[in-house]
Design a protein that fits this description.
This protein is an alpha/beta fold and 294 residues long. The strands form three sheets. It has a four-stranded parallel sheet with strand order 3-2-1-4, sandwiched between helices. Strands 5-6 form a two-stranded antiparallel sheet. The chain is globular and about 60 Å long.
């Protein structure tokens, strides 16, 4: 099966700029510099990429909610992964930091943002340091800074460390924290796309969502969509933990059966015992009985 984000998981060399470029890294960014913002948004819309942070909202549609002609737009990448049992985004930041950086730059060009923030969960100190190194490498190569590959598009990408507050995984609480306020959710509307960071139009996407953007431009939106289902295009990362033989992060087509994930990819229940129950998402999701997992 084709793997996009996870092909280099476990390889420390893959996080280096030279290695990423040798594998085709930043090629999609070069392609994006010759596209209009509207065309980039169109490709993402055609890809049927849904937000990979839990809400599952169509990414291209979310980007299109920004007010037309907005002068100050921000991109905020939610890397505050705090739900129990979730570790896919930290794995991405650890092994594929340049893919996230490239996706962030392309997204900023699509939405007209000249400042982006990656809000990293406070405990993930090593991942934050890896990201900062990748950003400096990208700046040194001319991928961001005063221009993007010579294109007159100034762009800064900043890593911001959280302080371990679970609630800051919610997008408006995260925005409050970025502003130096108490990390508490805001009443919506207005939604961040209208009035977000510093009361300006803001797009909030999570790490996995943004990391798939370069592949959408490389493959084309239609081909990416064909990897998934009618309702959701592409692949998605699934973090499996608990009493299974092979816990880890698996990149699978959208719509993959839960029992198949457990029994085929994660090796089944530890010790060959019978499955009792599964928590399929974060702490607010209901527990599924074994009979409900097919």
């Amino acid at each position: 099966m084709e793997r996009i984000l996870s092909a280099n998981f476990g390889d420390p060399q893959a996080r280096q700029l030279q290695r990423y470029e040798a594998g085709g890294g930043y090629r999609s960014l070069r392609k994006a510099t010759g596209m209009t913002p509207e065309k980039i948004v169109e490709e993402v819309t055609v890809s049927r990429l849904l937000g990979r942070g839990g809400a599952g909202f169509p990414t291209g549609r979310k980007w299109s909610f920004l007010p037309k002609g907005a002068k100050n737009v921000y991109l905020v990448i939610n890397a505050d992964e705090g739900e129990p049992g979730t570790f896919k985004d930290r794995t991405l930041m650890r092994w594929e930091p340049h893919r996230l950086v490239e996706g962030a730059i392309i997204t900023c060009m699509a939405i007209g943002a000249h400042q982006a923030y990656i809000y990293v969960r406070g405990e993930l100190a090593e991942e934050a340091a890896i990201l900062e190194t990748a950003i400096e490498e990208a700046r040194g190569r001319g991928y961001l800074g005063r221009s993007v590959l010579g294109k007159p598009f100034p762009l800064e990408l900043t890593v911001h460390r959280g302080a371990g507050a679970y609630i800051c995984g919610e997008e408006t609480a995260l925005i409050n924290s970025l502003e130096g306020r108490r990390g508490m959710p805001r009443i919506k509307p207005p939604f961040p796309a209208v009035a977000g960071l510093f009361s300006e139009p803001t797009i909030v996407n999570n790490v996995e969502t943004i990391s798939y953007v370069p592949s959408i431009l490389e493959l084309g939106g239609a081909r990416f969509a064909a990897l998934g289902t009618e309702g959701e295009g592409g692949l998605r990362l699934v973090a499996v933990s608990g009493h299974v033989e092979k816990p880890g992060v698996y990149e699978l087509p959208c719509g993959t059966n839960l029992l198949k994930i457990i029994n085929e990819h994660a090796g089944g229940v530890l010790g060959g015992k019978a499955l009792k129950a599964v928590i399929p998402g974060g702490s607010s999701t209901p527990v599924l009985k074994a009979s409900e997992c097919d």
